[in-house]
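For anyone still unconvinced, we reproduce a single protein record, the chain in one-letter code, the fold tokenised, and leave readers to judge:
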Amino acid sequence: MGKLRVALWVVLAVVAVLLGYVRLAPSDPETWHVMPQTSGDKDFGNGVIRVVSGAPDGLERLDGIVMQSPRTTRLAGSTGAGMLTYVTRSALFGFPDYTTVQQDAETVTIYARARFGRSDMGVNRDRVQGWIDALQP
């Protein structure tokens, strides 16, 4: 019984360390404040790219929408620079998702991705679609 108790404490300690790392790992703007070259919408395992046309003031409006999202903070950039990156954390464990938004003329490109794992179970896709829906007049 004593070995089982020790094993349980070891497992709990490992889980606590992993969850602490997820919550406290630094978010380096040089790593996450990037926009890949893209020509259109794309879905991948842990994120999405969406291109929204016809929005000359889209970046400013989208910034207001994003900053009202729960558990979302700005990591880097500004509307004046034409590119912003946000961190949105999951409610329970605090997993970070990174979203970079860039304006070029009347086109806004949104690149959302999870930091950990190969699949985000559609969370980034759904979040970005909600932002796009709110951006539409």
Summary: Residues 28-135 form a domain with the TATA-Binding Protein fold (CATH 3.30.310).
